[in-house]
Write a structure and sequence with these properties.
With 286 residues, the protein is an alpha+beta fold. It has four helices and eight strands.
């Protein structure tokens, strides 16, 4: 009689158990409990809450960098125009106004790239009214009897206070403060016209509200060709649009005086950059 020897090694059932332990089937996988699922959702929500502001900040910084580059190029074109026209500054209608296209603007021969004329954010660039703008701001120009030699390019002759010419018409008018401290372009969109702040009064005008396109701040260029980003210090400066709008068609124009030191600092900083000085005593303002 022939005896069969048992197979060497583990039995088939033992091998099957080992494989099952090493490679559990889908049926053997334990499903997520409700609590575990809620924890996963909470972690995902937390990551989104962290990443979204970071991505928004990165996008804003990229747009700001483009905006500063645009302002520098526009200001260099502004200077080049003056050099080609006996020192005369381009008027505030340099670009696209209510009935004009950018291609018909005065600076188009110097910069033929339409993207440079527009802020990557929601705004468009304007010239400050002191840089040969069209607005007649009280206290910044000579009386009518002194306007005999005015020209269509220079509708209002700027008043001089010491070495400071308030309303600039020529590059040579920029004496004190120097070109590095006199604003030219700003990322504002006041209906296609020049942007202005008051000279004699510590208040904002409804027609030219403080720009807040870049993270609660403003980008602007100076007459020497460099551009800057100003982060508004006052919370009220950022919220001023909410306070002044909306208004009905029959509403009277409103002006707003800053109520805090930071808000007043923001306004006066822009007034000095625009006019070269304040038209009132800063010490007298509470």
């Amino acid at each position: 009689m022939i005896h069969k020897h048992p197979p060497v090694g583990p039995s088939r059932s033992a091998r099957s158990g080992t494989i099952a332990r090493r490679f559990p089937s889908v049926r053997q996988c334990r499903a997520f409990t409700l609590i575990e699922l809620l924890v996963v959702i909470a972690v995902i929500a937390m990551l989104i809450a962290i990443l979204v502001p970071v991505l928004r900040s990165a996008r804003e910084q990229a747009q700001r960098a483009v905006c500063l580059s645009n302002l520098r190029q526009l200001t260099l074109a502004w200077v080049a125009y003056a050099d080609d026209n006996d020192g005369k500054l381009v008027s505030s209608s340099w670009g696209a106004g209510p009935s004009r296209s950018i291609e018909s603007g005065t600076l188009w021969p110097y910069i033929r790239d339409i993207d440079i004329y527009r802020c990557p954010g929601p705004g468009r660039y304007s010239i400050v009214t002191a840089a040969n703008g069209g607005h007649k701001v009280e206290g910044t120009y000579l009386p009518r009897r002194s306007q005999r030699h005015r020209s269509p390019e220079v509708p209002y002759i700027g008043k001089r206070v010491g070495k400071t010419v308030l309303r600039l018409a020529r590059l040579t008018d920029i004496i004190s403060p120097g070109a590095a401290q006199r604003a030219v372009f700003i990322d504002a969109f006041p209906a296609g016209y020049d942007f202005y702040v008051y000279y004699l009064y510590p208040k904002w005008s409804e027609s030219s509200l403080p720009p807040i396109h870049h993270g609660g701040g403003v980008t602007l260029s100076m007459a020497d060709g460099h551009a800057e980003y100003w982060k508004w210090k006052g919370r009220e400066t950022v919220e001023i649009r909410r306070k002044m709008w909306p208004r009905t068609p029959v509403s009277e124009p409103k002006d707003l005086e800053p109520q805090t030191e930071d808000g007043l600092y923001d306004l006066q900083r822009l007034q000095r950059a625009t006019w070269g000085r304040l038209g009132y005593s800063a010490e007298e303002v509470p």
